[in-house]
Design goal:
The complex is a heterodimer of chains A (350) and B (104). Chain A has 7 helices and 25 strands. Chain A is an alpha/beta fold. Chain A is elongated, with a radius of gyration of 25 Å. Chain A has 2 domains: 2-121 and 248-339, FAD/NAD(P)-binding domain (3-Layer(bba) Sandwich); 125-244, FAD/NAD(P)-binding domain. Chain A is 21% helix and 28% strand. Chain B is of the alpha+beta class and 104 residues long. Chain B has a 5-stranded mixed beta sheet with strand order 2-1-5-3-4, covered by helices on one side. In chain B, β1 and β2 (14-20) form a beta hairpin. Classes of the chains: A alpha/beta (350), B alpha+beta (104). Chains A and B meet through loops of A and α2 of B.
C-alpha cells in the first residue's frame, strides 16, 4: 500500500503543479496516470505545439512546459504510478481513501484530487460488427509485448506513427505483416515512412492501400479478415488484427465513483475549494465543471492552489495555517534542498 | 458581422445559428458556443475529429490542410463531404452554410 497525503489522479500540468503547492504546505503527493509518462495531453498529444497563454511565458512548447513543471516539483519528491488507470475508490472508517488501479496497485491518503483532464486515453476502435467478440481472441488495440506475435500472421490497420512503427518492429518478429490503410498516404516521421517503403520493396511486408478491413471471421480465435480494396473484397488469413487508430479520451472508471457529473465533467464547488459532492475528493483542471469554467492550464494552476489549502485544513483540522510567499519563505524540499532569496547586505558607506 | 448558418444535430434537429465573422471563430467553436453536442476535444488542432461534420450546401470552403486530410483519413464515418468543423473559419462567404454533425 502506497501511503501519502494527497493522491493525485492525472499527471498533466494541473496535477503536477498541485504537487508544488502541496509541497509548500509540507503535504506529500503521489500521482497516478494511465499514460506511461507524466505530462498528460501536453506530453502525449501535442508536445511540439507552442502555448502562448501561460503567464510570463510568451511562448513555450507543451513538452517543455511539462519538463519545467517536473523540475519545479522535484524538491517535493512526488511518487508516480504510471501506465495504470485509477479504477476503484473506497472510503475507510478513518475517513481516508484507498484508490486501486486496474493493475491492483493500492494507494491510501486522506485526500484525493482528480486532475484527470479529458479522462483516460483509450484506443479508438474501428466500427466493425462483432469487434468486441474478438477482443483478446485475435484483436489487440495496444501492443504490449511484441514477442506475442512471433511467427504469427499479423495485420495492422492505420496510417499514423504507431501503425508505421509497429509494422517496422513486427516485420522482424512475425511470420507475416500486412499493413492496411484507407489512403495511399501515411502521416508519420519521414524516417518511418521510408523504412516501411523499404520493407515493402524487399517484400518483407505486404502493403494494401487504399483499403479497409470490413469483417472479421474465425472459430474460437480470429482466423481471417475481409479487406475491401478499391471496391473488391478479399479474404485475408490472419492470427492477429491490430487496429491502430490513435487514442481518444474517456472519463473512464471515475464516472462510476458516485461523483456528480455534468456534461462529462465533475461538478465542484468553485466558490470555495473545488471539492466534489464527496468530501475529501477534489477535482481540478479540465476534468471539473462549474459556472463560468474555462478549460485552461492557467485556470488549472489556480484551482490546484486553492485545493491544496483546503486539503491542508482537512488533513490538519486543528493546525492554523497562513498563506506564505515563496519570495519571503523560500522553498524547503523534502529532499533537504533549500532555495531562498539572497539576503541583502547592510553596510555603512563612510 | 454575422452570418446565418444551419447545423443539423445527431437527432436530425435543425438549428439556425448566428455566427460572428469577426471573432476568429471556426465552425466547431460556433457549435460549442451554442451548446450543440460538439466535443472539440483537441481544441481545434485537427487531432481528434470530434467536430467532424458533413457539408450539405455547396459553399466555397477553404482547402483542407494536410493535417485535416490526414485526420479525416483516420476518422470513422467519413464521407465525401466530411470536414472538421474546427478547420472551417467563419467567413461572410459562408452565409447560409448548412452542415450535419457526423456520428460520434
Amino acid at each position: 500500500m502506497i501511503k501519502t497525503d494527497i493522491i493525485i489522479i492525472g499527471a498533466g500540468p494541473t496535477g503536477l503543479f498541485a504537487v508544488f503547492e502541496a509541497g509548500l504546505l509540507k503535504l506529500k503527493c503521489h500521482l497516478i496516470d494511465s499514460l506511461p509518462k507524466a505530462g498528460g495531453q501536453c506530453a502525449e498529444i501535442y508536445p511540439k505545439k507552442p502555448i502562448y497563454d501561460i503567464p510570463s511565458r510568451p511562448e513555450i512548447l507543451a513538452g517543455d512546459l511539462v519538463d519545467q513543471l517536473m523540475k519545479q516539483i522535484q524538491p517535493f519528491q512526488p511518487g508516480f504510478t504510471l501506465g495504470e488507470t485509477a479504477q476503484e475508490i473506497e472510503k475507510k472508517k478513518d475517513g481516508s481513501f484507498v484508490v486501486t488501479t486496474n493493475k491492483g496497485t493500492q494507494h491510501q491518503a486522506p485526500v484525493v484530487a482528480i486532475a484527470g483532464g479529458l479522462g483516460t486515453f483509450e484506443p479508438r476502435k474501428p466500427d466493425l460488427a462483432d469487434l468486441a467478440k474478438w477482443e483478446d481472441k485475435g484483436v489487440d488495440y495496444i501492443i504490449r509485448e511484441p514477442e506475442k506475435y512471433r511467427n504469427q500472421k499479423v495485420l495492422i490497420a492505420g496510417g499514423g506513427d504507431s501503425a508505421l512503427d509497429w509494422t517496422i518492429v513486427l516485420a522482424d518478429i512475425a511470420q507475416s505483416v500486412t499493413l492496411v490503410h484507407r489512403r495511399n498516404e501515411f502521416r508519420g516521421a519521414l524516417d518511418s515512412v521510408e523504412k516501411v517503403q523499404a520493407l515493402k520493396d524487399q517484400n518483407k511486408i505486404q502493403l494494401i492501400t487504399p483499403a479497409q478491413v470490413t469483417a472479421l471471421e474465425g472459430e474460437k480465435h480470429l482466423s481471417s479478415v475481409t479487406i475491401n480494396h478499391e471496391g473488391t473484397s478479399l479474404a485475408h488469413p490472419v492470427d492477429y488484427f491490430i487496429p491502430l487508430f490513435g487514442l481518444t479520451p474517456k472519463l473512464g472508471p471515475i464516472a462510476q465513483w458516485g461523483l456528480e457529473i455534468e456534461k462529462n465533467a465533475i461538478k465542484v464547488d468553485n466558490s470555495l475549494d473545488y471539492q466534489t459532492n464527496i468530501p475529501g475528493i477534489y477535482a481540478i483542471g479540465d476534468v471539473n465543471t462549474y459556472p463560468g469554467k474555462l478549460k485552461l492550464i492557467l485556470c488549472g494552476f489556480h484551482e490546484a492552489t486553492l485545493m491544496c489549502q483546503s486539503a491542508f485544513q482537512r488533513i490538519y483540522p486543528d493546525k492554523r495555517n497562513v498563506l506564505k510567499y515563496t519570495t519571503v519563505s523560500g522553498i524547503s524540499g523534502f529532499d533537504g534542498s533549500r532555495k531562498e532569496a539572497q539576503k541583502s547586505t547592510i553596510k555603512t558607506i563612510e | 458581422m454575422e452570418i446565418k448558418i444551419t447545423v443539423i444535430d445527431r437527432e436530425g434537429v435543425s438549428h439556425q445559428l448566428d455566427a460572428p465573422t469577426d471573432m476568429a471563430m471556426n465552425l466547431m467553436e460556433v457549435c460549442k458556443a451554442y451548446e450543440l453536442p460538439v466535443e472539440g476535444t483537441c481544441g481545434g488542432m485537427a487531432m481528434c475529429a470530434s467536430c467532424q461534420c458533413y457539408v450539405l450546401s455547396d459553399h466555397p470552403l477553404n482547402e483542407k490542410s494536410p493535417d485535416e486530410e490526414a485526420m479525416l483519413s483516420e476518422a470513422f464515418h467519413v464521407k465525401e463531404n466530411s470536414r472538421l468543423g474546427g478547420q472551417i473559419p467563419m467567413d461572410k462567404k459562408l452565409e447560409g452554410l448548412k452542415v450535419e454533425l457526423a456520428p460520434e
